[in-house]
Every structure is written in structure tokens, then in C-alpha cells.
Amino acid sequence: MSERVAIIGGGKIGEALLAGLLAAGKQARDLVVVERSAARAAELADEYKVLVTDVAGAVENARVVVIAVKPEAVDGVLAEIGRVEDNNDAERVTVTLVAGLPTAKYENALPAGSPVIRVMSNTPLLVNEAMSAISPGRYVTDEQIELVSSLLSAVGKVMVVPERLMDAVTAVSGSGPAYVFLLAESMIDAGVALGLSRAQAAELAKQTIRGAGAMLTESGMTSVDLRAAVTSPGGTTAAAIIELERGGLRSSMYSATAAAAAKSAQLSRRSELEGSAGNGGDGRDGRT
Fold first, then answer.
1. CB hemisphere CA count around 184 (13 angstroms)
2. Do 174 and 125 contact (CB within 8 A), yes or no?
3. pLDDT tens, residue by residue, 214-236
4. In the chain, what are the domains?
5. DSSP 158
6. N-to-C CA span, the chain
């Protein structure tokens, strides 16, 4: 069976996946990229020594086709894929990294029975630290789930979830990096207010968040246990935690993630209605 992985879309996300796969040991001869900009195509070919071609050339005999384009470009890409006459249709799995578009949209546009996997990743994919949630469509096999999980593990962690939970995933991990960046911004501003230079406060905050994240992922302890371990009774951390709880940090996070999930669902429903009214499709245009 072909080991070819075709990445349709040579933007930041497509390039990050390409670089991660190569770093993980995937051979350049088994990777192909579709990029419409001639200058960008030349840049990718020169940097990664991979074939950069059109949709038809990339999809033919590919085992995995990754769609990493803007939502408005998906219909055109699916139409081009549908025109490819390939004996590998039954074995090929289509993976969508496009935010908000359901597996049904792809299943309806591709040949009958085509396996589709929807992925919600996040921006740390750009530094190989993504959290990617994958939802298999109706025709996906366990072997294909394992294959796609293995590919995505090159750029971070992977979790399999039912598609009905994608709005929740969006709220927690899709939008989550912004919550952390806001926390860092607040810590830096607070440090400046206490007399530190902005450069000092920024270095302190960034390394603290990095170290805390490493402890959370590598120590085997829960977030509750880790917080308790650093919070001495009557100490400085306890005083700070009291103020954060008094300010409603925990309840604000509940409200924030609920709002993000509701917005994701709203945008998906709106796009589905617009797609149905426009061309009979059920495309969505969710945003993180």
C-alpha cells in the first residue's frame, strides 16, 4: 500500500505538519504538497526537498490526504479531488484540519463510502506541541484512526473524540492558547506595576508558564495536587490564590469556555444554513 501523504495547503499549518513529519522520520519521497502560489511552492520545495504539485497529482495513489486550506477554499478542493480517477479511493483517508466543517460535508462531496477524519488542532502545532482532537466519520476503520493518530503525534498529542464534542474541544484546547497568553500578559503587566522592567517581567512569566506546563504534563500529578504543593498555608501563594478566587477566576473560566463552545456551535449552524441555502451543502465555517 502507498505510504504517500498529500498535504493540500502550504500555509503555516501545512508547513508545520510537513516539518513535523519529516522530523519524525517520514521520508520526503512519501510527502507531497499542494500550494497554488508559485513563490511559496518553490520555497517549500527548496526547504524540504518534497514534491509540490497540483491537487490531482498529489491525491493520486495517496494513502492520506490532509486538507489544510481556508474554509472558503474547501469546496473547490473537494471538487478537484472528486475528478481524480484513482483505484485507491477505498483505502485513502481524507483528513481535514479546517475549523468547523463537519465530516458529513466531505463524505457528501467525495466518492460514496470515502473515509473522513476531522481534526481540531491548535496553534502550538507550529512548535510541535499541538493538542489535536480527531473525530472519525462513518466509514473510517480502526486502522485508519491509528494511522492518522500516528501522523499527528509528530506535532503533539492526539485524542480521539466523538464529533458532537468538537465544540467543547474548541473551547478548551482550540481557543485555550489564547487564555494562557492572556494570563502571561496579565502577569507581565502586574510585574511591571510592582517595579520590574517589562523585559524582566516577561522572562519571569514565560519561563514560569513553561516550567509549570512541563510539571503538569510530566510529573504524573494532577493540577490540584501541583497547586497544593506550591501553596503553603498562610504563605505568599495562598494570599495570591485567595485574591484570584475572590476575583472569580474559576467561575470566569467556566463562563469563558461555555461562551466559546456556544459561539462555535452558533457559527457552525449559521454556516450550515448558508451552505444549504446556497448550494445544497452543509458546510460550516467555525472559528477558534
1. 19
2. no
3. 999 999 999 999 999 999 999 99
4. 5-166 (3.40.50.720), 175-230 (1.10.3730.10)
5. E
6. 36
